[in-house]
Amino acid sequence: MQNPYLPYPVRIDEIITETEDKSLKTFKFVFLNASDEDKFTYESGQFGELSIAGLGEIPIGIASSPVEKGFIKFTVFKTGKVTSYLHAMKEGDIMGVRGPLGHPFPWETLEGKNIVIIGGGFAFTTLRSSIISILDPANRSKFKDIHVIYGARSPGMLLYKEELAEWAQRDDINMNITVDGTDDPDWKYLTGFVPTITEQKAPPGNDDTYAIICGPPIMIKFTQPVLDNLGYSHDNIIMSLENRMKCGIGICGRCNIGKEFVCKDGPVFTLSQLNNMPKEY
Amino acid sequence: MKLIKIDQQNWNTGIEKAKSAYRVFGPVKEKNDYEFKVLGTNEMPDLNFRNTRLSPKSIIYPQSQVMFTYSIDETKDDCRIMKEVENVTSPMAIIGVRPCDALSFPIVRRNFDTPEYQDTYWIKAYEATTFVGLACNSACDTCFCTSAGTGPFGEEGLDVLIIKDGDDFYTKIITPKGEAFAESAGWGKKEQTDITAKIKELKTAAEASVSSTVSTDKLKNKTILDLYDAPFWEEEAFACINCGTCTYVCPTCWCFDVQDETHGKSGIRMRNWDSCMFPLFTHHASGHNPRNNKYERVRQRFMHKLKYYVDKYDSGIQCVGCGRCIRLCPVNIDIRKICDKMNSFDTESCKCEATSS
Ligand SMILES: Cc1cc2nc3c(=O)[nH]c(=O)nc-3n(C[C@H](O)[C@H](O)[C@H](O)COP(=O)(O)OP(=O)(O)OC[C@H]3O[C@@H](n4cnc5c(N)ncnc54)[C@H](O)[C@@H]3O)c2cc1C
Ligand code: SF4
Ligand code: FES
């Protein structure tokens, strides 16, 4: 019997400050025991519990992609006890990671389909993982058209800026990067809220087109009617939830919505599934 | 299954003998209530109780349990690496488990021992334990075990069932674990006796003494959302003060929190019982709380026990009818009443009312 609460020890290999206000940092971890990396075999959309001895554990979506080997990455917003401490840690420090946890995006269903990736704010982490996976030469041919709509408050608040710029140059992915507003004369992408840009840029819904949405509740609330109007069926709208968690494995009883545990049965659900669940998220 | 008859003398020597092979727990009178305690030499379980104040849940699943230890001493190689605590549990036997409380263990097991993840702490303690039950010859007026999946002579979750008749202990040995216990108590060679008729008589009388019931037959064929949106939750929750007593005393409540505690350069990661009645239980770092209102938390507790669990496992309700939450709730919230409300809730008639008004 394996203890499911025991974190794998990891070393912080690199810390990247992502946003101008320094509230978001990406942490790149390397496993102390190489064999743990094999045990941590994940797919885009899953999450891990980051563990800091003396502080506790926090559920964070995996921002790296399984095609990136030798490390795992998480992008963390500084907000409370554990995240603030993590932001003060240094490269070389030792901590722990547990996982991978939860279900990934439904990659088997998505094969052969058009995918529209819609993200807002800092909920772009597992979407970055997804884009890296999809664009990998071994995977790109498995999918049809890829659209990305990603918005932040201002240019300085966008995550993964260099990668965004790179993807925007490519012809096998349709990037729509937007900010709520900016006075930067060099800003070369879009301005406008994510729901508005979705209305203008997303392809119409059909059986072969799926939307994956991750973002703050307000963005999701206003994007959903847009997708309805574009003809997306609720089976084709995929979302990822964040409920407060502890164990991450469906045992501590904290994160349930109805009979589902967000940690174990989610965090990925279709809108059809969510329509039949209490709105406790 | 084997049936034997033990007299008081044999009972006492048996329990004493068993202590050399097991850590033996039994009910002990403390002030006005009975609690499960480890029995010392010559200490006998006091079987003159209706039921213990708390179920023996905490013997398998302690209220506070160390999961890991760690050091934050930067000069040590294992600094900030979680280390497993030694988790070998020596054999334990709990004497005097009431049938309702016994049923709570197979119920809770569905949560801790799943195909995907095994909670090593709970499972090891559970597997090391022999459950020696004590049948109830007469029920309290808050018991409703007969409609909650068991009864005063219920055997599910037990390895041995003791039925007291005057000075005699009728002993039903139910499982191999129970056999091993009887062996170590020196009861193994006792002749099988024909006390079936006598037990049946006591059982019928005991079942007749259970004066309250709940109806659960229609919980399954309503949708989660129908019951979740039922109009009675705010009213039913009105008096609740969110004290959490009901979840704390419940043998089937299993939710926990995980906390780190550092003293000097070393620390422990532990888990502590938690309660869905507390607002912080679901409170996000952002301040958002999906169950911000009291009635939403009360609804969660009853929906979990009487609907979510029912739908998830198809094995009845997550309640054993022990009645503790009814007896100990400071504002008299009664799960029997809520269960009947949920069971008899008619979505159709409710919709009609709503549209006609
Ligand atoms: C599946 C999932 C994926 C997530 N992915 C990311 C991500 O990629 N990047 C990111 O910055 N944040 C993410 N979050 C949110 C992140 O978990 C919380 O911001 C974090 O737990 C706050 O911890 P804290 O100790 O700083 O806050 P405190 O308020 O001090 O919280 C104390 C404890 O409560 C729990 N907790 C509090 N808020 C939340 C919450 N919103 N969700 C879950 N547990 C909570 C944690 O156990 C935490 O340690 C994700 C949450 C979930 C459930
Ligand atoms: S014991 Fe009664 S008052 Fe206390 S939380 Fe439970 S229902 Fe509410
Ligand atoms: S976090 Fe423990 S059950 Fe989901």
Number of strands of chain A: 15
Q: Tell me, briefly, the overall form of chain B.
A: globular
Q: State the major sheet of chain B.
A: 7 strands, mixed
**Assembly classification:** heterodimer
Structural class of chain A: alpha/beta
Strand content of chain B: 15-25%
The strand line-up of the biggest sheet of chain A is: 10-9-8-7-11-12-15
Task: Give me the secondary-structure category of chain B.
Answer: alpha/beta
Q: Catalogue the unreliable spans of chain A.
A: none
Tell me the name of the CATH class of the largest domain in chain A: Alpha Beta
For the residues shown, what is the average pLDDT of chain A? Answer: 95
From the N-terminal CA to the C-terminal CA of chain A, the straight-line distance is 33 Å
Number of helices of chain A: 8
Give the domain tally of chain A: 2
Question: Mind summarizing the main beta sheet of chain A?
Answer: 7 strands, mixed
Ions, cofactors and other ligands present here are: flavin-adenine dinucleotide, iron/sulfur cluster, FE2/S2 (inorganic) cluster
End-to-end distance of chain B: 61 Å
Number of strands of chain B: 11
Please give the share of residues in helix of chain A: 10-25%
Task: Summarize the helices and strands and which ones pair or pack.
The complex is a heterodimer of chains A (281) and B (357).
Chain A: E1 8-17, E2 24-31, H1 34-39, E3 47-52, E4 56-61, E5 72-77, H2 81-87, E6 94-101, H3 107-110, E7 114-120, H4 125-135, E8 146-152, H5 161-169, E9 174-179, E10 190-191, H6 194-201, E11 209-214, H7 217-229, E12 237-240, E13 256-257, E14 260-261, E15 268-270, H8 271-275
Parallel strand pairs in A: 7-8, 7-11, 8-9, 9-10, 11-12
Antiparallel strand pairs in A: 1-2, 1-6, 2-5, 3-4, 3-6, 12-15, 13-14
Chain B: E1 2-6, H1 8-18, E2 23-30, E3 33-38, H2 57-60, E4 64-71, E5 83-84, E6 92-97, H3 99-112, H4 120-127, E7 129-134, E8 160-165, E9 168-173, H5 176-184, H6 196-208, H7 224-228, H8 233-237, H9 245-249, E10 256-263, E11 266-273, H10 294-313, H11 324-328, H12 335-344, H13 347-356
Parallel strand pairs in B: 2-6, 6-7, 7-8
Antiparallel strand pairs in B: 1-9, 2-3, 4-5, 4-11, 8-9, 10-11
